[in-house]
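Hey Z.,

So I finally got round to the zinc ion thing we talked about over coffee. Here's the setup:
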Amino acid sequence: MGSARWSLQTSHLILIMSFPIWFIVFGFVLGTVLGSLLKVLADRGLSGKSFFGRSCCLDCQKKLLWYDLVPLVSYILLKGRCRYCRKKIGWEYPAVEIISGILIGYLFFLSYSTLPALSDPLKLILFSLELVFKIFFITVLLSLFLTDYKKMLIPDRIILPSIIISAIFIFVINLYKVAYLYIYLQSHPIGKYLLPPYSSYFQDRVLSNIQDLFTHIGAGLGLGTFFLLLILLTKGKGMGGGDVKLGMFMGIALGPINTIIATTLAFFTGAIFSIFLILVKKGSLKSVVPFGPFLVIGSLVALFWGNWILDKYFNLFQ
Ligand SMILES: [Zn+2]
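And the result:
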């Protein structure tokens, strides 16, 4: 009895210790920092100002110091006002920081189950690469949500570099997977026999990684072309060139299946929102709603729950 009780308590302790709370908190804090950066990215992307250079108060133009810029904390300590001129700081700043914090914190929570042991640095690098890519994707999406929602604009200065960076990420991740597999197989006594000339296993894996790279690029080109055709057919109502570029970004980052899920969700939520606007008489059939924010929401849902949705969808037909 005594030992059973002891082992129960020990297992509880291990459960608490292994609960990824520190990991999630780190993700949340990182998310709030990125939230304040992406707000600057969105504001400056719209105003045409340089992305670099220190932030200053929009009213008194006073340069802000680091302790004025701590996400959430500064806002709370300063009670939402500028330290120097006491003018109100917009509520959007803490709102964006909280939302970004929650999303990145949630990403860390989901990723924890695949966190490799610290003793496996090669696997840890791959894990970090994929995590950083997802963080980058979420950050860019949120800043484009802001610009499209505010001014119906997806600035080239944000979306074009993002398309290129996401393509580089997909390339590097696939290249790393191949290199990792090669090193792994070579270092194992039996692994050598999965390398040429003994077996085609390694070549097959290389081919499947090349295939993965091309399906992601293909999904980007596919969705971009699809949006372009829609614009030509509808003569540009509710959709613009910015959506074409956003579509390319989504496709490259998400890959074909999640891209289809994200786009379907975007059309659904966009339609429901438009009907809602008409019902509350805030809009009419002619009013234009930017489509970008719905693409962003669809992309985030697909990123977090794409596999789950796919699973449920196919179970419907069994
Ligand atoms: Zn001020």
